[in-house]
């Protein structure tokens, strides 16, 4: 039971906003020591853990091309494009992206999009440009933070609740291999994937409506700005 | 058969280039620490190949990883001065190149998909060209390379150093968060080997009432979500909660529909993933990539959705997975 001290350390560390790398490393070492793992084995686990998880860092390969086209005005052009599409507000762009992301993930195309591939270079600049066009000026720092958070959320929610509908995805295969070997069942991936559909639809509806409501939240943020209020007043 | 190692070497080489870029930048405030961090990280990507093949001792890599944590955790590294184009220059360049700018960005996903779908079909001497399970990863790596070549053609003339200077800027904005997902996966291993999973499973198994269906369902779903938040990964939480509650109580005791219970149990775990900084590659790295002030911004945006979805999942499981 004492190994749960390590879990508590993680929670406390994150709550106090200590550098997460330190939190994770220290609580990992303490948990392992309590659990009776020898220091040399702990070092071995840090080594094999790093070597075995390198695939999560693959996204950095996209950075050179993204940085290059950003330098040549990618974000500015994304803004120009949005200028012409008057009906696309920030919320609608993100809701549309959620649908696309979820459908693509559901047919197995998960790494076609992602924070480095699509969110930073394409979706966020469009979402920000739409807000800029709507309020007629640069959005506040606070509004930009909100748009960034929601853009990232659209990508993640779409991925999570789309991929489980696809039969060959890791999570489905993990379930079948685990329960088949542990409990002697023989489940077909399709039997599981079908049950992911109702929750997937709920995810689309819930998060989609929250994204559409983002426009109203941004209104509020912009409304607090005295410059904008006087501009609106002048129009009235 | 081609595996993913060449791509990890490419990533390692990329980190080494970044380290050299920083080391030669006289104006960098934390030149030594930053270039040491990225350089050592790059070397680790090469050395890992032999660790993975069990041809070199893993503890050396473990020591190197701890040095990386010290460099990053005690602020020996930091971002350098930004040197990129001004907003005016960017607007002028966008006016000149217009939608051609999107071509390299779109080349990444297009190549990824072509490789992911096409490569498994290619066989040489009846052996698949790519090792199993590496097609999408390889696709992403190839996509990045092809896109860079396309960008050079479209934007010419570009000095070869420019994309690396620009990606150094992006990578330094991400900073230590680039290493976090890999560290968290190691933490998961340490937790599991130290018996954290068993302890949590025992606690849930002992407090869940065996005879009221709704509480069993709630315990399974909420437990998987909470445990996922701790471990940062639904894959780690699912087997433990399934062994503690899902299988003995929901399937055996209440005669539930096993595939429905397991599929939705995993989705309950995903609700937890949406709310935890431990799932760094989904929640923290995007915040770093978007240069957010509040690194928990994506979690704030996701938490209400996760809460509502967890309730939906519980309801779906309760009403559809059991003979009522």
Please tell me about this protein's structure.
The complex is a heterodimer of chains A (236) and B (324). Chain A has 236 residues and is mainly alpha-helical. Chain A has two domains: 4-52, no CATH class; 57-224, no CATH class. Chain A contains eleven helices and no strands. Chain A has helices spanning 4-15, 20-34, 39-52, 63-71, 74-84, 90-106, 115-135, 141-163, 170-183, 189-223, 226-235. Chain B has 324 residues and is mainly α. In chain B, strands 1-2 form a two-stranded antiparallel sheet. In chain B, strand 1 and strand 2 form a beta hairpin. Chain B is globular and about 70 Å long. Classes of the chains: A mainly alpha (236), B mainly alpha (324). The interface between A and B is large, with 116 and 140 residues. Chain A: The chain crosses the membrane at residues 25-44, 56-74, 94-116, 156-178, 190-208. Chain A: Keywords: Membrane, Transmembrane, Transmembrane helix.
